[in-house]
Amino acid sequence: MTLASGVGSHPGEDQQAFDEAVKLVLGELPDLPYLPEVPGRGATATLTGRALAVVAELAADLQPAGWRLTGSGGTPGVDQRRARSLLAQDLDGLEEQAQDHAGAFKVQVAGPWTLAATVERPRGDKVLADFGARRELAQALAEGLTSHVADVRRRLPGVGRLVVQVDEPALPAVLAGSVPTASGFSRHRSVELPEASQALGWVLDAVTEAGAEPWVHSCARETPLDVLRGAGAAGLSVDHAQLSAHDLDETASALEAGQTVALGVVPPTDRENRPTDGQVTEGVLRWLEMLGLDPEQVGEHLVLTPACGLAGATPAWARSMLEVVRKAAAQIGS
Questions:
Q1: β-bridge pairing 159-167 and 103-110
Q2: 168 occurs within a structural domain
Q3: Residue span of the structural domain in which 194 resides
Q4: pLDDT tens digits for 22-72?
């Protein structure tokens, strides 16, 4: 049976929007719902703020230029404490609404390289500029995820399959050496593939050892899917429209190996022409045929999602697209 899910983010600017998003994913995506993210609530609710709420043993605060580390073992800044409080509040709300949920569930967190490209060092510029700092950040994220997974399992005891989606939208830019420095006049040096794989591997291994299933998501072009799989990703979450010929080979290999491919098949923002579930079903079946794979063969290892997060959509569009992927998945799996 093909599954339907979402990438993570939803539109809105307040706690009511989060509560409504939880209700929406539990209703529309019963086979693989997830903890929604509503970044419109502010910096503490963004991808970076959410991850800094999870990391262990690293303190951070919020500056006009964005999030900045303040040191190891120090006192978290007021905004990092707020980020942790908001995450706990969201998990409380999830626990209340999903207390009877049994089956699979997914949570999301920014990956080590996206964090390194968006968070500053104590002395300025991105963590990406400092070899030691980026190692420390990746290890702190891995450690924090161990506790986070345990917390989610405690709150949702009926969940068997728990997926942790590690979001790495900045990874291609990190590898290409195209992340701008603080001044904007230069670019950070590219990170070599072995180091990129090692740091990501620490995080994915921590997820696996905690008893969850690690996926990696990126809807950016030129994401090295082979590196993600080599680092330990049991699932790839990708935008179908961005896949190169090499990516098609990697997704086919992943499905043949019994790994998961979450395929982004509907637009994440409002469009004049709304895709129908029939159109999506037809497109996915053509894609599987091109790969030489039978829908029954891939089964629930294929997951249909929007192409990226829904934070930029209207609430009506977000609801509509989740309905489309649910219906398309049901048709493919029938």
A1: parallel
A2: yes
A3: 42-233
A4: 999 999 999 999 999 999 999 999 999 999 999 999 999 999 889 999 977
Pairing of the two strands 58-63 and 66-72: antiparallel
**DSSP label at residue 43:** G
- Domain membership flag for residue 311: no
| Gyration radius (Cα) of the chain, Å | 19
Dihedral through CA 297, CA 109, CA 240, CA 315, nearest 10?
110
- For the segment 108-164, what is each residue's pLDDT rounded down to a tens digit? 999 999 999 999 998 888 999 999 999 999 999 999 999 999 999 999 999 999 999
Q: Which of 268, 215, 224 is nearest to 246 (CA)?
A: 224
CA atoms in the 13 A half-sphere facing the CB of 310: 28
Amino acid of residue 163: V
Number of domain units in the chain: 1
Q: Which of 274, 334, 272, 325 is nearest to 24 (CA)?
A: 325
Q: Residue 215 carries which DSSP code?
A: E
Dihedral sign, Cα of residue 62, residue 10, residue 156, residue 334: negative
State the Cα–Cα distance between residues 224 and 40, nearest whole angstrom: 30
What angle separates helix 78-97 from helix 15-28, to the nearest 10 degrees?
40
Q: How many CB atoms lie within 10 A of CB 42?
A: 16
> Quick check: pTM over 0.90?
yes
Report the C-alpha gap between 94 and 52 in whole angstroms: 20
For residue 283, tell me if it sits in a domain. no
d(Cα 34, Cα 8) in Å, to the nearest integer? 7
Domain assignment present for 298: no
Range 219-232 average pLDDT: 94
- 214 forms beta bridges with 164
Residue 237 is encoded by which pair of tokens?
A: 């979450």
Beta bridge partners of 302: 261
- Return the beta strands (E) in 96-135 as ranges: 103-110
The SS3 assignment for 123 reads coil
Neighbour count for residue 147 (Cβ, 10 Å): 12
